[in-house]
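FAQ
Q: What does a multi-component entry look like?
A: The components come first, one per line:
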Amino acid sequence: MKKELLLVLALAGSLVVRAQTPVGPVTLKAYAEYSYNYTYGHFANFDVLTRVPLNPYFELDAGVQASTANIYTVSADLRPKFPVPVGEMYLDTRLLYKAVVRDRMHDFAASLGLGYRMDYVDVHVGLFTRLMSDFNRDWHSEDEMVTEPLGVIYNVEVFVRPQSSPWNLSMRIANYDDFQIERIWQPLFMLGGRYNPTERLSVLLEAQCKPTGMFHLNASFYGATVRAGVAYNF
Amino acid sequence: MKKTIMLLPILLLASCSLFPNLDLGGMFNGSSPRNDQRFEESMAYNDSVPSRYPDLTMPNDEYTIYVGTDFHVDTTWRTTAAFAKEAAAKADMVLLLGDMVNAQNNYPHFWEGIRALRESFVPWYATAGNHDIYFGQWSVFKQYFGTSTYFFTVTTPSARDLYICLDSSDGTLGVKQLAWLRALLAQKQEEGFRHTIVFTHTHMFKRDGSQGHTSNYVLEETYEITSLLSRYGVDWYVSGHDHSREVTEYKGVKYIIVDANNDAEPKPGYMMAAVGGTLAYRFGSTDELLKKQ
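Then the predicted structure of the entire assembly, as tokens:
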């Protein structure tokens, strides 16, 4: 009981401290991507993402992606934050909807996870599920929506510099990114770079490699993405 | 810290020797040729040995197929032999969906396990699973089975059925095999087949957690292949890999996962299908076969 009380007091204390800190700026990011994979060949994606700090305890990420592979994705991520003595803990509530127009199907994924981030590390683990359905599903047939059982979502990202640095590099392993949530055994390997030419503007360059068949199949390369973009803090 | 880093390679080597059947390398970077190369070698084999997996003619409009998968033969092959004996006695045709062997040097054991089938007149068709090509064993698979991608037809007095065998042992069809499948389905659509059945190792969907989340195709490939199969009226996509039966009907196609049939499996099983005017399936227990035999 004593431990629980101390935990509540610590949490309350951290919220009071947090309430005294100003809300961060709204960030807008735009990316252009070049991608290649075995299924679609060469294609391009265009992404717009925003981060809106709603108050000191909540931030909302939202994004849209249009792909020349004829796939359109929207994402939303509401993130309650819990300041701790070093860094920040957060809950990650992620929703992703993909209209796979080329294959006439919907893919809806949702996840809930707990994360911790500080200057050099961002780790996140949680659970997700997915629902896939045909655009023209015949509700009077045996056809089913495919719902996947709860799977694990994870992210480990390490940075070489503190977040306040005008430039940074990162390495990341995760089974999700801004516009996809893959199954647990489908890791994505990512490298990221950021440079701030001014206080408000950042230039971003990221690369991603997607293998297939890791762990339970004969592992093989599947696809890669390079994306370049800018972020502006209002 | 320094000591821990130095210990890591030793631990890795120790784990390799503790689990000699585990192709740790293959799980992270397969040592057999990539799917596109395997596909090319399969096509070359199909051209040079067309009699390996021939078209069939059945005397009746309805016939029975037996499907076995995930035999994982190691040093014993009781369940494989039981399935082969039953199939040789009762099936008109047999499909083997991969993971014939568990690790290295086991192909002769599997070959022995299916002796009853080999010595029967029942035609059987095979594809590769991930275990079949671990440890760079694609070349050994080829010695025994020749090819992992092909198609054949079954002609009955009043109908024709199309069977397409795919190699999905590294979790992707690759560029060339996917293009081949697209072209084949489009071309064969004109011929008015009664049923089209695709069989391969890797399952498409996973809706229960029976074996944890076994890896399968990446999402992009799941979208694309399911769309392709639906568009061209494929009836069944039959697979193994997950080790426990599951049937999902999605966009007009039945995705069937067949139970594993191996000696280590608590409930080894197989599938029987009646192919006629309609398609029907049921699952069988290999334990029952062992008791009976």
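Q: Is there any commentary attached?
A: Sometimes. For this entry: Chain B touches chain A through 46 residues (CB under 8 Å).
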